[in-house]
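sorry to bug you again but im stuck and you know this stuff better than me. theres a chain ive been looking at and ive put its sequence and its fold in token form underneath. id like you to explain what the token line says about the fold, in plain words if possible. anything you notice is useful, everything is just below.
___
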Amino acid sequence: MANHKATKKDVRQSEKRRDRNRYYGKTTRNAIRTLLAITDKAEAAAQLPKVISMIDKLAKRNVIHKNKASNLKSGIVNKLNAATA
């Protein structure tokens, strides 16, 4: 366990960050799942920018790697195009 005052503070901060990152990650995963379940092309097209924005924010916050964000966005767009075609 931490003995120094600064180390104890760092532990508190990292717990807060971890909880926040887990929340944002889970929310984004749920949004992706919901988007892929939509069958209406117009509704999916309306939701797509919001989900892509969420993914970009995760990459910006270093919750996920920028390449993973790109792969997620590419996969989502490909699946939506295949489903609506």
In short: The helical segments are 5-37, 41-60, 66-84. The domain at 5-84 is CATH 1.20.58.110 (Methane Monooxygenase Hydroxylase; Chain G, domain 1). Residues 5-37 form the longest helix (33 residues). The CA atoms of residues 21 and 63 lie 6 Å apart.
